[in-house]
Amino acid sequence: MSDAAGGAGNFKAFGSKFLSRPVSKSPEQKLREVSDMYEKHFLREMTKAMRSTIQEGGFIQTSHAEKIFREQLDDHYVEKWGERGGVGLSDMIYTQLVEKFGVMMGIKTQVSKPQGPLPLDTKSFAARPFQHPGKKQSVSYRIDNTQGPQGADKAPEAVKAPWDGVLLGKKTLADDQTMIEIEHDNGLKSQMVFKGGVSKVSTGEKLQAGDTLGFLSPEAKSLYWTVEKGAEPGPETVSE
Length: 240
Description:
The protein is α+β, with helices and mostly antiparallel strands and 240 residues long. 33% of the residues lie in helices and 25% in strands. The chain folds into two domains: 69 residues, no CATH class; 105 residues, Glucose Permease (Domain IIA) (Distorted Sandwich), CATH 2.70.70. Strands 1, 2, 3, 4, 5, 6, 7, 8 and 9 form a nine-stranded antiparallel β-sheet that branches. The longest helix has 26 residues. The protein is elongated, with a radius of gyration of 30 Å. It comes from Bdellovibrio bacteriovorus. Pfam families: Rod-binding (PF10135).
């Protein structure tokens, strides 16, 4: 009886020493593992397709054991490719997963509705996307004035900060155009180019969403607004 009790005690000690709790993984780690898994699956299928192009024949036939060895060797190659960074497919998949499920998993903050740069909830302005030259990883809009030139009796339209942030800089361009750049608290950056003037805001000044940055000139036809993430300001945009 004592031997049995002693054996049970030894087993408990053994279990407490060698059996540990499963390590909890962060949402980022889970998505990264899924991305790596899909990349490895793609590479395995690619190696299989490459093997299938090799014609087998002749006097010496490939044995079943050799085929198994080749599959294991290819799988080893795939694992080594993954350890060395893969082919970039995992990063692409990870970025797409974060964009789609990041808010739900708590990885990224949901971007609130912008309060600028112009009031798009009226019929006075219409926005359409365009490709910013030199900024492929960005989202750009051309916001057109659909009411035509503003009359002298109408107050100039205010250009406002879309989200909270810090003013990175302001610059006067050719043809009375103005460029304003803001680094937002949500991790985005805005660049706005329009014909008009800037209000009394200074570089480095803290901005709140909806703060007035400047005013459109009466003859202004469009405002160009580019939003990007983690990128340096690129070439200047020309507005009308």
